[in-house]
Amino acid sequence: MILWQILLLFFCIFPIWSRLPEGQDLREIREDECYQKCFHQSAESCPDTHAPCRCQQLANCKKAVVCCNVNDQTLKEQLKCANLTTRQNEIEALHIRNATLEVLHLNLPEWKYLRSMTITDGHIKNVSEAFPKMTMVSCLNLSSNGIQGIQRRSLVNLYKLSYLDLSHNNLTEVPNFKIKGAVTLDILGNPSISCSSVSEAIGKSGITFNNENSTFCQTKNFYWFLSNDQVIISELRRIHELENNCISNCTCSPFVLNLGTKIPRVHTVAVNCSGSHLLTMPHKLPPHTVALDVSNNNITSLKELLDPSYKELIFLQADNNQITSIEQLEGTQFKSIFEFLSLKNNKITYIDTYLLEFYRPAVSVREVYLGLNKLTCDCTTMTDFKMWLQTKSDFIKDYKEIMCDTDEGDIRVVDIDPSKYCQSNEDWTDYIYYIIAAEVFLLVSLIAKVSYDYWVFKTAGYLPWPASKMPKLPCDWLCE
Ligand SMILES: *[C@@H]1O[C@H](CO)[C@@H](O)[C@H](O)[C@H]1NC(C)=O
Ligand SMILES: *[C@@H]1O[C@H](CO)[C@@H](O)[C@H](O)[C@H]1NC(C)=O
Ligand SMILES: *[C@@H]1O[C@H](CO)[C@@H](O)[C@H](O)[C@H]1NC(C)=O
Ligand SMILES: *[C@@H]1O[C@H](CO)[C@@H](O)[C@H](O)[C@H]1NC(C)=O
Ligand SMILES: *[C@@H]1O[C@H](CO)[C@@H](O)[C@H](O)[C@H]1NC(C)=O
Ligand SMILES: *[C@@H]1O[C@H](CO)[C@@H](O)[C@H](O)[C@H]1NC(C)=O
Ligand SMILES: *[C@@H]1O[C@H](CO)[C@@H](O)[C@H](O)[C@H]1NC(C)=O
Ligand SMILES: *[C@@H]1O[C@H](CO)[C@@H](O)[C@H](O)[C@H]1NC(C)=O
Ligand SMILES: *[C@@H]1O[C@H](CO)[C@@H](O)[C@H](O)[C@H]1NC(C)=O
């Protein structure tokens, strides 16, 4: 019996008990809405169109005001009738909907004690002046106004700023705001916003982007991007990380190859280590490096090209080093895929031409620079090399600057006449042929004479001249 009573009691109380917190939560949320970080009211909260004041304090939260349909002429007086002009009323949250303004001035003393300032869904051309010093606003929402310009220093005084919503405007730049501390920024739907200004914002510590994966910026004048291209913010963040995690003594940046509209864009990396006192090329490159500049160092060899991290490399610039040979291209992926190779002013003495040949028909561009290297020139190499150079003048762009290290100083390969260069050598070989011919003639004559003497001696029994006049040698008895 007691058990039944307990059960009955439980079933009666349980629904009430379980509903209670719900009801309480609902009431609390309503009140909290006024003072939550970003105050935002729907159009239904607007004052009645016939009301004398276009602003009103909300019934359930006295510290919050909603204004609607104000313009340049009415804004100030409406703020006054909303009690925003005095500190006494402790207005902390303001939402102005459908404001039509040429310029929104931020230097009004009315803003100073607000914690949340929301001016949305209106028509505002520009935002100018700066907030008063020590303004408390921590959430600023200027979304959906078609704003074209915010003066760069307008928001710098918002030392408590933690949420900045500038979405759905017509901005071209991210305005400056406080440098330190966490800020969430929303710039979704600003079709002309420049990537360089977004990139600058990404550099600030503690910044988070809302809608990072759906916000685009304009790449005009930003790295190698094609002008009027669009880049997603998360990609921009990747670029930023790339720049800040480069290999030592080098700088990394994106190298963008736009492979047409059908193929997805491939983001790749360019590494610049020029003038870093390197003695070797970097042992390991960041993933997807396609371009490397190691000019103006003291590098002696290209052997690092064999490292797997070099397998995507297409552009290599290594001017003004001490590289002695291009032999190390052998067996590398670079040899078959490269499009740009510059080895100006190195210490290369011999050029294996087959290492630079290009058989891939799909890519017609291949640029090679080898100027100011001093080759060891001899007749045969020069004959072949000069001929090769003449046929490759399209892609050895500075073929006129390749030098020959000769006795008479450095001479440009193109200025050397290989036939003249080889002349003395030809004379010498001709001379050898004459000697050999003479020697063969002499030998044949000698054998003929000896055979004739022997035949005469055998048949006539005497030795013809000069053998008869020769003094007898001790070994002659052997013949007799
Ligand atoms: C916005 O305000 C203007 C006058 O300032 C008014 O004509 C227009 O109807 C308002 N729009 C809305 C959606 O309330
Ligand atoms: C402004 O404050 C006064 C007195 O505190 C109050 O009577 C008045 O209703 C307030 N105005 C608005 C628009 O709420
Ligand atoms: C800012 O205002 C826009 C437009 O009314 C709204 O969609 C958005 O949610 C607001 N942002 C925040 C953080 O409240
Ligand atoms: C944005 O600004 C450009 C000119 O800067 C203008 O042509 C365009 O209509 C504007 N877009 C909006 C939505 O205001
Ligand atoms: C509005 O801002 C744009 C861009 O910053 C500027 O060119 C224009 O002169 C400004 N207009 C006014 C009225 O301040
Ligand atoms: C953005 O996209 C990346 C991958 O493209 C994903 O890892 C990340 O979680 C996404 N972020 C958000 C907020 O959706
Ligand atoms: C980077 O440069 C510094 C100073 O020029 C040098 O001491 C250091 O060895 C270099 N690091 C590498 C990896 O070359
Ligand atoms: C690498 O950096 C140097 C100076 O830091 C610059 O002169 C050079 O143009 C850069 N190389 C490339 C390929 O951009
Ligand atoms: C290369 O080394 C020589 C001597 O070792 C030095 O004088 C020169 O400055 C170095 N060059 C570069 C670009 O580091």
Q: Can you tell me the residue ranges where pLDDT is under 50 for at least 5 consecutive residues?
A: 6-29, 259-264
DSSP summary: helix tally: 7
User: Helix and strand string, N-terminal first?
Assistant: HEEHEEEEEEEEHEEEHEEEEHEEEHEEH
Distance between the termini: 159 Å
Number of domain modules: 3
Strand order of the largest sheet: 1-2-3-5-7-9-10-11
CATH architecture of the largest domain: Alpha-Beta Horseshoe
Q: How many strands, which pairing sense, and closed or not: the largest β-sheet?
A: 8 strands, mixed
CATH classification class of the largest domain: Alpha Beta
What molecules are bound to this protein?
2-acetamido-2-deoxy-beta-D-glucopyranose
- Count of distinct strands: 22
Helix content: 25-40%
CATH topology type of the largest domain: Leucine-rich repeat, LRR (right-handed beta-alpha superhelix)
**Secondary structural class:** alpha/beta
Q: Which descriptor suits the 3D outline? A: rod-shaped
Strand coverage percent: 15-25%
How would the blueprint of this fold be written?
Blueprint: H1 2-35, E1 55-57, E2 64-68, H2 75-81, E3 93-97, E4 100-105, E5 116-120, E6 123-128, E7 139-141, E8 149-150, E9 163-165, E10 183-186, H3 195-202, E11 207-209, E12 216-218, E13 230-232, H4 233-244, E14 251-257, E15 266-272, E16 289-293, E17 315-317, H5 333-337, E18 340-342, E19 367-369, E20 374-375, H6 379-391, E21 403-406, E22 409-412, H7 418-460
Parallel strand pairs: 2-3, 3-5, 4-6, 5-7, 6-8, 7-9, 9-10, 10-11, 15-16, 16-17, 17-18, 18-19, 20-21
Antiparallel strand pairs: 1-2, 12-13, 14-15, 21-22
Helix pairs in contact: 3-4, 6-7
Bound molecules: 2-acetamido-2-deoxy-beta-D-glucopyranose (NAG) (9 copies).
